[in-house]
Amino acid sequence: MTIDRAAIRGWSARQNRLGRRRALPVLVCGTLSGVAAVGQAWCMAGILAHALAAGRSGMLDPRVLTPPLLLFAFLAVTRAVLQGAGEVAAASAGVAGRRRLRAEVLQAVLRTGPRLLRQRHTGEVAALAVDRIEALDGFFSRWIPAATLAMVVPALVLFAVAVAQPRAALILLLCGVSVPVAQALFGIGAAVASRRQFLALSRLQVRFLDRIRGIATIVLFGQADAEAERLRIAADELRRRTMQVLRVAFLSSAALDLAMATALVAIALMDGRSLLAGGATSSWVGGLLVPRSLFALLLVPEFFAPLRAFALAYQDRMQVSGAAEQVLPLLGEAGEQAAEAPAAPAAPAVRTVVAYSVSVAFEGVSFSWDPARGRTLDDVSFRIPAQETLVLAGPSGSGKSTLIEMLLGFVRPDSGRITLNGADLDSIVPAALAQMTSWIGQKPVLFAGTLRDNVLFARPDATEAELRSALRAAAVESFLDVLPAGIDTVIGEGGFGLSGGQAQRVAVARAFLKNAPLLLLDEPTAHLDPGTEREILDSMRRLAVGRTVLLATHSVAAHSFSGRRVDLNQGRLLGRGGSAREMTA
Fold it and tell me: Are residues 433 and 314 part of one domain?
C-alpha cells in the first residue's frame, strides 16, 4: 500500500496534538525552571561583580553577598525540584502516548483479524507493535516538550538579556537562529537514516525468527554455517545503518556547540573592548557594565540549553514519520475490513448465532495457496446443520486444515462463499467470529503461566464453579493431584511440563469453558497413544453435544464420532455418504 505524504503529515500532527495535552506539566515545569535560571544568573552576576570590585579594593562585604547567595541557593533548590518534576511528567507522557498508540495498533490487528498474519510476517507485526512504538517514547516524552520549550525559554532569556545588554541579545538572536537552520538540514538525512535503520532491524528480526523456527531443518540439511553467515550479514547491515543515524546526530550536536561558542566569544570580546575603553575607574564599568556583561555571559548556556534539548530530540521526531509508514497501512487494512462488513445487518445475526446455534455452509469454494501448484480446494460444497457433526476425512495434504482455516478467518476463498446461519463469513467481524468459535488442533497453544490462567484464557470472567465444571468435563481433574500445586501449577511455554494428553485435555477444558456454538477439531488426537486418544475423544463427544462440529481427521478412532462423513482428496469431495460409523465400517 502506497502511503500519501499528506496522510503521514496528518497522522504525525494528530500524535503531536494528542501528546501535547499530556506534556503540559512538562512545559510548565520547564518554563518556571527557565525563570529560575534567569534569577540565578542575575544573583551570580552580582556576586562575581562584587568579588571583582573587592579584589581591586581589598574590601569584601559579607552583608552585600549574603542576600544574593541565599536567593541563589533557594532558586537552585527550586529549579532542581522543577526539573525532577518535569522528568517525571515527561516519563508519564511517554508512557501514556505509547500505551494509547499501542492500543490503536492492537485494535487494528483485532479488527483485521487473523488474515493479517497471512499478509504480514508475525515478526513484522511484533516489531511494529513493540519496537517501533517503543521507539516513539522520545517523541512523546522529549520532542513534544522540547519543541515548545525551545521557543519559550530562549525568548524569555533573550528578553532578560535585552533589558541588560541589548547588543548581547542581538548576538544571541543571530546565533540562535542558525541552530534550527542546521537542524533542518541535518534532519533530512536523519529521517532517511532512521527509516533505513528500522527496515534493517525488521529484516533481521524476521530472518532470526524464521531461522529459529526452522532450526531443526537447517541443521538436518547442513545449512547451519550458511544461515549463520546470512544472519551476520543482516546484523552488520543493522550496525552500519545505526552508525549512520549516530553520525547525523553528532553533526547536529556539533552545529549547536559551534553556535554557542560563537555567542560566548562575541559577547566576551564586545564587552571586553568596552571595559578597556571605559577604564578601570569608570563608574560605568564599576556600576553597570561588569554585572550586566557577566549576566549576559552566564545566560548564554541557558539560552542554548533548550535548543540543545531540541536538537537531541530532533531524531525522536524523525521516528514518527517512520512509524506512520508502518502504522498507516495497518490502520488502512483495518479500515477496509470494517468498511467491507455491513455493520448494521451483521450485528443481530452474530448475536443470534452466539446465543443459540450456528449452521455452516460451503458453496462452491475454491482456493489455491500457490497457483503454480494447482488448487488446494476445488469447488467444495457441503452443509453442516446446526448442532450436528460433520467428520471430514482424507489424507494429509487433502485440504482439510485449509477448510478449517477459512472458518477461523485466516484465509478467504478465491471463489465461492462460506456462510454461518446464512450470513456471509466476510460480513462477520473477526471479534464476533472468534467469540462464536472454539478450535482444538494437533498441538494446543499453551503459554508460560499457571494451569488456571491457561484455562481461563478462554473466558477470563468465568466463575470458580464454571472453571471447576469445565475441568471435570475435560477430565483435567484426573491429573491435578499429581501436579505440585494443582491447578495453580506453573507450566512452561508450549505446555512444557505436561504430557501431550494432559495438554490436549487443557485445550478441551478451554472449549468447555468458552461454550461457543461452533467447534472446529483439526486432527485433535494426532500423535497420541490409543488409550489417551480414546479418553480425549470421550471428552470431545461430551463437548460436541448441542454444538455444530467440524472434525477433520484421518484417525480411524475419531471416525467413531456420530455424524455425517465426507471424504476429501486433493481438494475435491469424493463422497457425501451416511454416518461416520457406517462409512468406517
Answer: no
